[in-house]
Design goal:
single chain, alpha+beta, 2,3-Dihydroxybiphenyl 1,2-Dioxygenase, domain 1, eight-stranded mixed β-sheet, two-stranded antiparallel sheet, about 30% helix, about 20% strand, 2-oxoadipate dioxygenase/decarboxylase, HGLS, dioxygenase
Length: about 325
């Protein structure tokens, strides 16, 4: 039975320290303003509103969330929240990152995906912990914030024209409000514009329709208890339950090169939606991910009950992230 972590997962090689430099690049990274505003309570309330909107709009994600909470009376804990944006007219990474950095988040690093024309930035949370009796945000540290942006200027003139037609200057200032409400800042796209854009960038088409709604959340497996404390058991459980798992790249379990970052994601659910021209189609929505961060070799002797987040593998993994993003693939297996 899948009850404890397997020895195979905990026996890993020492990470390459030089790899850390690959998390950072030469692109212009957003900077926090001098404002350090508001209370911890407000930050948690914003995150919880974003989460509630995501669960309301995605029934499958809500079902998974409830399963994680119910199995062995788990208390949910999150590794990261992931958003998609457009790098055009103020709608890119800055439109979301500035808010979180004002409330204590700091730049962790970034990844580049040239073939997809995408940059990804991730932010580390402030040293705040959710109370043990927290509601939707569960317990443990606040989630990392991961924000992707589509490099619109690198797309074809046709795709750029479609995107710019909807995204008016200055609208990105309402990004956080849009995410908490689950409402588009711009007008709903037509089916023709959506499908035309999807031919070049499925990411772009997804973001044009869903906007700043949370793209996915990732549970922190290493902070869960009982059955879900082992990502192999997570994989086994959801296979048994009949969920479609992301096998992009050949394997359901995505393992970082150093063996310390383990990821599994479910394929996105699909929704029947109506476009601005009254055409109805079925498109991908959001999904769920599970992340297990193993303890760094230099901390292997730290007692289990004293392990903190800084003792574990940090950051993201280029290859794994590439495949995880395919969880919203329009041509997902049926």
């Amino acid at each position: 039975m899948c009850l404890t972590r397997t020895a195979k997962l905990s026996s890993v090689s020492h990470p390459d320290r030089a790899q850390k430099s690959s998390y950072m690049g030469s692109i212009d990274l957003p900077q926090a303003s001098s404002f350090k505003g508001g209370s911890e309570t407000f930050l948690r309330d914003v995150l919880e509103s974003i989460l509630k909107t995501y669960l309301r709009k995605n029934p499958m994600a809500n079902t998974v969330w409830e399963l994680v909470q119910s199995v062995d009376n788990e208390k949910v804990s999150y590794d990261h929240f992931f958003f998609r944006t457009f790098k055009v007219d103020g709608y890119g990474i800055d439109s979301l990152s500035s808010f979180f950095m004002d409330y204590g988040y700091t730049i962790g690093g970034r990844l580049d995906f040239p073939k997809k024309h995408i940059h990804v930035l991730w932010l580390s949370p402030p040293e705040l912990h959710i109370p043990g009796d927290g509601h939707h945000l569960g317990n443990g540290p606040l989630p990392r914030i991961v924000i992707a942006e589509l490099l619109v200027d690198e797309l074809s003139p046709e795709s750029q024209e479609i995107i710019r037609k909807y995204l008016k200057p200055e609208g990105g200032k309402q990004a956080i409000l849009s995410s908490t409400l689950g409402s588009l800042i711009w007008e709903k796209p037509t089916s023709n514009d959506f499908n035309q854009l999807a031919k070049e960038s499925e990411y772009g088409a997804w973001a044009l329709f869903h906007g700043y709604t949370l793209n996915h959340l990732a549970f922190a497996v290493h902070r869960l208890k009982h059955r879900f404390s082992d990502i192999k058991c997570v994989e086994e459980y959801f296979k048994e339950k009949g969920f479609k798992l992301n096998e992009d790249g050949g394997d359901v379990l995505k393992v970082s090169e150093d063996g310390l970052l383990l990821q599994v994601s479910l394929m996105s659910e699909k929704h029947e939606v109506e476009f601005a021209d009254r055409v109805t189609e079925t498109i991908t929505a959001s999904y769920i991910e599970f992340v297990q961060r193993l303890v760094l070799p230099e901390f292997k002797d730290v007692p289990g009950d004293e392990i903190k987040e800084f003792h574990r593998r940090e950051g993201l993994e280029q290859a794994s992230a590439y495949h995880i993003m395919e969880s919203t693939r329009f041509t997902a297996q049926d």
